Amino acid sequence: MKALVTRLDSFGDVLLAGPAVRAVAARADHVTLLCGSRGAPAARLLPGVDEVLVWDAPWGGFRPPEVSRGDIDRLVDRIDADTALILTSFHQSPLPTALVLRLAGVRHIAADSVDYPGSLLDLRHRRAPHAHEAEAALDLAEAAGFPRPDDGRLRVHPPPRADHLTGPGPYVVLHPGASVPARAWSPERSAEAVRELAAAGHRVLVTGGPDERDLTAYVAGRYGTDLGGRTEAPELSGVLAGAGVVVTGNTAPAHLAAAVGTPVVSLFAPVVPAERWRPYGVPYVLLGDQNAPCADTRARDCPVPGHPCLNTVTATDVAAAVEKLLGEA
Fold it and tell me: Which Enzyme Commission numbers does its entry carry (predicted)?
């Protein structure tokens, strides 16, 4: 049986699909993961994936491409699967993707859908209220005939050693950036946390992407080690795996930390529900006002002056949360 799993969102979303992908891989002969370009680096880290098919859908992402008949035709020609699982967030419709898969000749398609699917779905599943995204994906897989084969935690391929980046000895990672501004702690607060953690005797590594080098340099300052722009996805997994704790917002490194088994201090802006997107399967401390006026707005830019849901969190709060998680470990 050739199976296709789709998750067309970002890096973190694809990591959360990992347990469901393993469930499919336990029963299928070949598993293709269809994802967008932002999720592709995560897809290549997932156990159980035999092939990664990259396509940016016009109905997803921060900057969706224009609808192109030729582009869709080329995708249809590349899809070769008997059965498919369409994984979406709780607020997304799977039906545009289902139409493409049906045109590609996929015979059995399963998805969570609140909308009437007509002939587009063979299994119209209803997700449990308030389910975490990883649990919802596992529930759908099981309903489609792919029961969970293991503990269902997030996983990636064994990370490479990162000693050349981290240096010797214990350390804490602080990742100050986020996929959208509404989910980021302020640079000033992040820099204060680095100073406070360093004063408490911790070595602090500051991570970020190539476009975040100015941010990571500022946050690291004199007291942290700046790794901004120096870690692709595999290297970042190695850095996070060696950390005692990872401090980050509701963004991809939180889920990558969970996938390598590292506790997380989660600076969680409530623009999406924490019950669905919190760090999964590892010890964590959730910081941030979950009842702030921005709650459940899915805003990309903070709609409240001063970003109070996160900026009321202090460096002392973060340092205390780090000590709590290290003590539990």
Answer: 2.4.-.-
